[in-house]
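The following record pairs a protein chain with its ligand, FE3-S4 cluster.
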Amino acid sequence: MKRLYLQTYGCQMNQYDSERIVRLMGQAGYAPTDRAEDADLILLNTCSVREKAEQKVYSALGRWRELKEKKRELIIGVGGCVAQQEGEALLRRVPYLDLVFGTHNIHKLGQMVQQAETLGDRPVEIAFYRDPSYMEDPEARPAVQGAKAYVTIMQGCNKVCSFCIVPHVRGREISRPSERILREIENLAAEGVKEVMLLGQNVNSYGKTSPGGLTFPQLLHTINNISGLERIRFTTSHPQDLSAELIEAYATLEKLCEHLHLPVQSGSDTVLHRMRRGYTREEYMDRIRRLRDRCPEVALSTDIIVGFPGESEQEFERTLEILQEVEYDEIYSFSYSPRPHTLASKIYPDDVPEEVKKRRLEMVLRLQAEISRRKNKERIGRVEEILVDGAAKLGRGQMMGRTRTNRIVNFVGPEELSGRLVQVRIVAAAANSLVGELITGQ
Ligand code: SAH
Ligand code: F3S
């Protein structure tokens, strides 16, 4: 068997796509290796959401140049969002690159590799498709490792956030047929998967583009009835599409975990307007209040961008304020970087100095660390259900799992608990994790 070395950057969608790449290339005779030096085929699944992510791609490719010089038959390919963004230009920029496959073209990869190997071609496939069948494989997804699995339910985004490259590199919204998704999750549950994470750039607008399928809340209801499955999560949602039905699902579906990632980006109405987010701060807060009303224990996380063009000190203060007002359990914060094809990069100069962005990012992180620590401390003494992921990074007999609210809990316990649901009592808390004691006799 030949060997495949695959490196993945970016979001969970890319991780799901990479699992699919490993599976498809496995059928084509490639076994995975974790040493690039041993590989016959090196693939890079890339992210271009921020400038830094894109730069990583070129430094990784630089490292592999020497391998290609030593071993001429080695095939190197780039896929994912940078591939989609650059297309042919990547081949010109990286002369030893053999193939480029876009975000809709994973199903073509086997054939492209063969073309490069046998004919010495440098194929590029970056077409977008309107028919969702490109997301389906002829052979059913085989058993996965562990108790958690990702399932892509839709791709692309029809929103027009002015900073975001995703609609350009993932295409327009396109939903997988509901029955395909349900069959995939039923199979996973039958293989022992207890938790699914439904993926999409904008999961709560699932179904809007596929007439005849279920709506997102209906899909959740149906998944909730799959036996063997214990937990449902999804990401990412747009605040505009957080409908009353979806809020109701949090109140009624026992398998839907009490956690929602709802990117707010900024607390300032004027910045939100320049970002073309399509909601005001008050509208966002109103949704949060309704959700907390129906599901008081829900944990919230969000994305924040600092240093968006023209962001004044006052506008930035509004972001600090909303963090205090909502009290998120966790946030992901980023410094703005202009991205190709986006509206913001065309009409607004990137005028917030780097040192100001850096200081704002630090302020956001510091404030959130305080809030997270305080909220985590409130959990001390509670008994929580966790799904055990496996051994914790800390070693020393420590295991790690997540609560339904997505908090990380470390606890001392035997390795055999991996993949099981257990009860722990929370005994200590830090900003990013909790310490638990296993409740025995379960
Ligand atoms: N709905 C999407 C969001 C994709 S981008 C999803 O599937 O997750 C993830 C986050 O990256 C965004 O929420 C935003 O906070 C950040 N981001 C996107 N474009 C950015 C840019 N140009 N500069 C800085 N951060 C950006
Ligand atoms: Fe990007 Fe906005 Fe869509 S952040 S993925 S354009 S909802």
